Hints:
Elements: E1 4-10, H1 14-26, H2 31-39, H3 45-57, E2 68-77, H4 78-84, E3 91-95, H5 114-118, H6 122-141, H7 146-149, E4 158-166, H8 167-177, H9 184-200, H10 202-205, H11 224-229, H12 239-250, H13 259-267
Antiparallel strand pairs: 1-2, 2-4, 3-4
Amino acid sequence: xxxxxxLLDHTSDPTRSLYVAYRTAYSALTPQTIVDRIASERITRxxxxxxxxxxxxxxxxxxxxxxxxxxxxxxxxxxxxxQFVRHKIGISFEQQSQRYVxxxxxxxxxxVPETVKRAGFGEKMEEAFDRLGELYQEMIDAGVPAEDARxxxxxxxxxxxxxxxxxxxLLHICDLRLCTxxxxxxxxxxxxxxxxxxxxxxxxxxxxQPKCGDKRWGYCDESLADWQACPxxxxxxxxxxxxxxxxxxxxxxxxxxxxxxxxxxxxxxxxVATAGAAKPPAPNGRDTSPPVPQTxxxx
Length: 299
């Protein structure tokens, strides 16, 4: 049975939700006023997106919990599900039960990994599953409860999920599960989740990357050997290289700061303290304030 991931529902307007959350944190305006300005188009979609991206660059992530996605996932194995349910914060699961759902005629859908098939064991594995299915049905017919007969069912048996996950947790899941070291089945599920979001919200999907991605950590924290073996490893620095840079700094091997550098530092004011006087309203009535947090209202 093939893996199938479908986006069922989501926050109605993720961009607006994120903007209102971020702007509430960085403005004296009430969230009601911010929403009204969005509705009147005083604040444009482009301004909202620019502000969100600027905030994400600072690492302010809590507003991402305000955006949620609902997925249907089917055709995955119990080997996958044991990994999936280890993600516990910001995600809710409903999974097909082997206690209340008895397989008819002892036939259960399952997954045979490609590595097993290439090694020539695919047919033997399927024969073993057929025998397990026959014994499972014999026990059911003899009155053994499904919750006990399921002890025979292997990790290869397929299961189904309906999940709701917030955007922050989805990013964390994909940090780990899009990594080439993750189990292949989980990589396929994470890739399909990303693809589903990309069809509707490409501006959000660009942040769904493995942890080494340019929108995430930007470096690899796996072992050096794994980084060297990774097909995309050379596109990102390894943590060892970052440590070497730190050690070079500690030993004083980096270029020293000159007097001109300190003069430049002194002349650059705080972005908050030197925001400047409020600008007059734009002729078209739209908010033209720069997308950075400042002391004056600019929502």
